[in-house]
Structure formats: structure tokens, C-alpha cells
Amino acid sequence: MPTYGKLDTYDESEDWNQYIERLDSYFDANEIDDAEKKRNILLSVCGKATYKLIRDLLSPVMPNTKSFADIVKLVKDHKHPAPSEIISRFKFNSRIRKEGESVRGFVAELRSLSEHCNYAATLEAMLRDRLVVGINDDKIQRRLLAEKNLDFAKALEIATAMETAADNAKDIQASAVSSNAQINQVNKPRKTYPNQAQASGVSGRECYRCGGNHFANKCRFRDAECHNCKKVGHLSKKCPNKEENPKPLKPRRKQKGRNHYVDDTSDEEEQYDMFNVEDTVNRLTEPYKVVLEINKTPVTMEIDTGASVSIISEETFRDLGKLKLSESKAKLKTYTGEDMAILGTVAVHVDYESFSGNLHVIVVKGRGPNLLGRDWLKSLKLNWNEIFAVKSVDKDVDRLLEDYSEIFKDELGAVKGVTAKNYVNENEKPRYFKARPVPYALKGKIESELVRLEECGIIQPVQFSEWAAPIVPVVKDEKASIPGDTLLLLQHFYETSVTSSKIKRWTLKNALFSRVLHYVKSGWPAKCPSVEMRPFFDRRNELSCQDDILLWGCRVIIPPEGRKEIIQALHEAHPGISRMKSLARSYVWWPNMDKGLEGCVLNCDHCQQVRDKPPEAPMHPWEWPSRPWSRLHVDFAGPFMNKMFMIVVDAHSKWLEVCVMKTITSENTIAKLQQIFSTHGIPDTIVSDNGPSFTSREFKQFLQRNGIKQINSAPYHPASNGLAEKAVQTFKQAMKKMKSGTIQEKINNFLFRYRITPHTTTGASPAELLMKRKLKSKLDLVFPNMEEKVVNKQNIQKHYKDKTAKERDFDLESKVYAKNFSSGDKWLPGYITEKSGPLSYRIRLSDDNIIRRHVDHLRPRQTADPVITPDFEIETSTPSEIKPLEETTQSETTEPRYPKRQKREPAYLKD
């Protein structure tokens, strides 16, 4: 049986899918249906490199044990991994028809890009939309947009037909021009200058501007001003107005028309369309402009004496405010004969120097320059001296140039009397970089420049140097300049931006990421290869790669080398943890990214200093004393009613004492307390704030002499002494309500009513709890079990308080931030040295000062440096949680001094 076709060895530059398609055609032509035979033919003709690739991909399994379809799919997945659907759609929707690209070629490229977009049933609609949007031809696009019920086939037919018609029209026009074009005569008026070469295109031509041996259009004195005639374009030595120079020929005036002048040298490529030209040598000049004030708005206009009317652009018209346009019957044409779109005419108020009045101006469509025409020039008296100002040059300039030729000559100068010195850091290590090869064409110029620099004394040859930088040859004015590449010495420069090229380099360099990239391209194994691969293995169906950069969905996977820079970029504006995570999840991902972002925020001093105070700690009620007058709470109230008052509250009975204070010195405070103690006795404990009267040495000595323990509440935390604070509030409210009587009479009345009234916490009056009897009054109240009611009331208060509270406890030596209530930072770093109360701590600051703060004014502080969390976590056994020790307080118990009295019911109650 004859064999049809020929099998070629697979070429690496050929698309694998196309090669398999040709191979399938060969099998069909030769009626080869056996799958095993197809496999053997493929393995025998694929070539050495391809066979090695197949064997490496199947290792340790031999290729001849796999089917033909499996081998084809394996190589296809390796060479052409399925790209991300999002990336494929992005490329498809970003494709625009290139310049010179045919419509059918553009459509073919769109079909190729849509292969992995998974458009399915919507493919035709997407191809139609992309064709219309990306056609890059205004005429075709407008034609397609005007078509109703446009589908892809119809859009392709219309676009192809219009493209073909445009190409045919160009061919017809080109043929007509080439057959009809005739050049009868080319006249170019030319000025004659002495010693000017008559032949064009000769390298020895003399420039009429400076007399040099080069073309005039390349002369560097094109913008120079002549000292003789004050005109721009030549030097005084080549001035045509000198007496020894012949007068230039006056060109004859040509008939008005459009002429295309072509210079007789091939170097000049500029071409201009003009109506009338008298001198093709004169350079184009900038337009003359003047600033007018139109409707109180400064407007720049170009002076155009060739324009019969003044015009302004549509953009300038909008800037003048809301003006009403009138219809204009005028027709304007450009110098090329094209009609200008006129929007209308409007009357405006114009102010210029001494002129102030209303003028009419035409508004044209577009954003062109504003023209000041002859109609306005008649009304405005322009300051022509400012407009046509001529720069003057001192006639002695030439003499100065000759007298000080050493300064102005194009050579190296020298400064005398000054010694230059280079300052180098003593600790800086010398750096030596090898010389770079230079282009052969510049070698001679570089050597000549080195000889010149050595002759000028700028450089000198040395046998050895600790410092060296390669030269960077730069050609300027046909001479070679050889500066050193000093940028190589700036090794301290730190590039902070993270780019895709950096991420690609880090990905390929990192061992773990290179393995992940290999699995993404060639396929994942059935089981996870290693522990550190677990985060990627769990997401293997969602990973893709683009230009050797790993992607998880639309998020770029950052290797460990670039995570610190990414975190710094994310935290640049110091957002919170939640906002920082939200921003990061829009762009990047890596294993344990959230922990790294949290550590960055928690270790940022700036973020910690401006944070709000933490949630309030759970309520910690004072222990109810078992006997009256055991613990007193003291505080000052005032200035109130032009007085200061000292409030004393018994924690057990809620008995209240109020003393009027002339001054709140320690001496007066001690005197008032002695007066109270003389009535009720000496307490065991006194609770007060940190006011000077309670923290002075005299007050402490007074307490020490009487055996009284002092407890100071946490600074700037009045709630710690809540019983006294509440008593102050109750006292003030009662005093405000009583209108008659002196201050002392009001105090006495308030104290009596307060002491006989059952307290809301205890359910009994303070007098009954303190004196074990009722004070004689008009009312006699029955009270329940006092201790149980107090505990229940405290529990209720604690329940409601703890709803918004958060329990915190700090160990000794714990790092914390303490609230600063003075000037300076809001939070001060320190560590715990002592627990001074159930919710109070002593903190040693960084300056060794020791302060005392309530737990509500403390926050934990992390001192570890920012650490980038690893890609995986190894579970380790953790010790069981150690429960904090609860403070236990032993209630003081006292033995009764007297036998318990027998209680009997009165006789009058028995009936």
C-alpha cells in the first residue's frame, strides 16, 4: 500500500497543536487507526529533544506504556498550559486593529485570542463588539454603528467591503496622478551671497550664515542676531547689508497661487503650502500676541493683520461666562480654502490700556487660537513698541570678545588662586569596576579625547588605582565625551517600587515558587509533595501563571523576597488592620498574609500612638465591709456655691459626712477627719484619689500614726473611687434643689434626710447600719436582708457593666502602653513592675519613672520586630492554659464581746 505524505521531525518553534493536526491528517490519509501504532509513530518521528521531554514528564514510567492521546495531552499541557480565563478575556477586549492590518487579519487574531475565553454561545456577539470597537477606522466604525440588527457576519462583510473600496480608490487616484502630473517649471527666488557655491549637494559648500563648510539649514547660528543689521539668521561677518557685499537680487513677484517649493538639496525635507512666497530662506517666526481683558477675563489673542474680522474659539467663549450668541451670516475660509464652522457672533466688553468699549467678535468651533483682526485693530490703539520690541546689542560686544578671547574661546578654562580638594568618607571602602568595551567606531575618537585631556592637564596615567568607574562614551558635535559612570557607586540607593519584573525574578529564583510554577504549567501530582507546598496545593485548581508570575485568581502571589516591600507599600498611609487587609486582597496574596499584615500594624509606633483607648475593663465592685466604719471613701466637692466641701462615705452603712472647707490643705483635711473620728472612731481603711491633700507627707504620717491603711484610686480614673464620686453628685443635686436656708442649714437638712432614708444598695438606712438603731423621725421603714440585697445589687450592676467591658490582666514584666495624661505622646511604653490593686498596676517607663494606672488605661505592647510569617505553620503542642489566680480576700471576723441578747416579741404584738 503506498504511503501518502511525509512526516517531519517536530520543530520546537512550531506550535504543538498544529503539529498534531498535521500528524492526524497523515494518519487519516494512510488509514492508520490503531492507537498503539499512532503512539509508536509519534515517538519515532518526534525527534530527540521532544522524546527526552516526553520521557522526563512521564518519569519513571516509560513512554511506550502510555496511549497516544495521553502523550499528546501531556506535551500540550506542558507547552501550552491553559491560561487564565480573566487574562484571556483581558487580551481579547484590549485588542485593537493595528496600523496597516487588514480587517480579516484582525478578525483572525480575535478568533485566536478567544480560544480560552470560554464565550461559548456568546462568541459571535463578542467578536462583533470587538470588531466595531477595535476597528481603528472612523469611517468604518461610523458605518457599523449606523447599521441596525448588526451581527458578526454582516459587520465583517461591511468592514471588508469598505476596506477593499478604500484600497481600490487609492490605486485609481495614484494611477491618475502619475499619468497626468507634469512639471512645466520650478521657480525658486534665491538671494545671492558672496562666495556661495553654485553647485548643490557638494560637501565643500560654504554656509551663508557663518561662512562655515556645512549646509545652511544645519548651521548653529540660524537663531543668531546680526550685530550689523540686527536681523536674525546670520553673523555680522556674513551680513548681506555690508557695503562690500553686493546687494541681493530682488526676486520677482509671483502670481498668487499655491506653490510647492523644493530646495535644491536633498537634506531639506520641510514642505509648506503657501499663497504667496517672496523669500524661502527666512525662518518661521512666532506669532505676535497681545493680552486683552474681555468681560473682565484676560484673553491672549494673536495679531493677524490678514484677518478681516476677529475670532475667538469655542473654549474661550465658554470661559467668558454665559453669553447669548447671535446668528452670523459671515463665511470664513482658511488659507487652504476650507470653510470654518461658525457658531455665531457675540458682543463683548473689551478693556486694553486706555480703551474700554463693546466690540463684536465671531465665535468659531474648536480650540484654535484667538485672532485679533483688522476690525478690532481700528478701535484698539495697540502699543506697537512692546509688540515689535527689538533686542539691542552693545556695539562694543565684538571688541570685548576680542579683548577677552581667553575667556570666551571654546577651550578649557582655569581658576587661579583656588585649590580644589575632594572629600571622601574615611570609612568608605574603595570600589573598582572593570572597564567596558567601547564601540570600534568610537575607539579613535575616545583615544583622541584622552590625549587632549592629558595635554590639558585634566587627567594623568597611573599604574594602579583603588577607585575606578567605567566610561560612558557620548558623541556630541562629532566629538567624543567620556564621562565616568558614577551611578555604579551609588550602591546605597534603595529601590522601593515592586514591579512585575522583580516579582518574576524572585519567583524564578525562589526554590518553592519555581516548583509551584512548574506544577502550574505541567500539572500537579495526586498528593501534596511537601508541607510547605500545602497552601498552594489546596488552591491548585485556582492558580495560574502569566509571564512566569503566579496568580491566584486576579491576585499576584508575592514571593518572600518582596513581601516586606509590599507590606510597606500597603501600610504607607497607616490604615487599620481591616482596611489594610481589604486593600491587600485586591492585589496580592501569599500564605499567612493576614498575620503578616496584623503584625505590621501592631508593631507600628505611629499607629499605636493614635489609637483610641481600649474597651473598659469589667466592673470590679469594692468588697462590702462586714462591719460599719471599716472603710471610708473620701473626696472633695467644689468649688460649689463658692465653697469647698469634703465628702466622707462609709462603705458599709453608706453613712455620709459633709464638712465645709475653707481650704483643702492637708492640715485642714486632717483637722476635719479628726473631728469626724472623734464621733465614730478610727476606720481601718481610707480610699481617696491622688490629690495633693491625700498624698502629702503630713497626711500619710497622720494615717500611719492612727494605724489607717490608705488606698489611692488609679490616677485619672474617678470610677475607682465611685462611692465617693456618687456621694458628691448626690450632695450637689440635693443642695441645688433646696432654696431656703443657709448653706449649713441645707447641709444639716440633707444629711438627716439622707441618713434615715434606706439606701438603694443596702435597703436599709445608713443610720440603722452604723448605729444599729433608727433615728427618731416621722418615718420608720422596714428593711430586708441587707447583705443579700447588697450582693444582688452589685451583681446586677456588674452584669450591666460587663456587657460592654472586656477583662484584661497583665503579668509582671509585661510590655504595655500606658495612657499619658500630660503633654507629649498619647501612650507611653513601659512594663509592669507591681500589681497595686485588683485593677491597678505600677508601670516603669522608658525614662525609669514609675507611674500608677488603672487597667482601663493600659494596652498590651508588642516589642518584636516586624516578622514576615512563614508560608506554612507547623502545629506544635502548647501547654495548657494557666488560669489567672483570683485574688482572695479574707473578711475580718471578730469575736463578740458580749453574749447574744435574747430577742422576744413585745406583748402588744401578740394580740
From TrEMBL:
Bias (Basic residues) occurs at 249-259
Q: Where is this region: Disordered?
A: 235-265, 870-911
Q: Does the keyword Transferase apply?
A: no
Composition bias (Basic and acidic residues) maps to 894-911
Keywords per UniProt: Metal-binding, Zinc, Zinc-finger
Say which domain of life the source belongs to.
Eukaryota
GO-annotated biological processes: DNA integration
One annotated GO molecular function is: zinc ion binding
The residues covered by the CCHC-type domain are: 226-241
* Residues in Integrase catalytic domain copies: 624-774
Coiled coil found in the keyword field: no
Protein name, UniProt field? Endonuclease
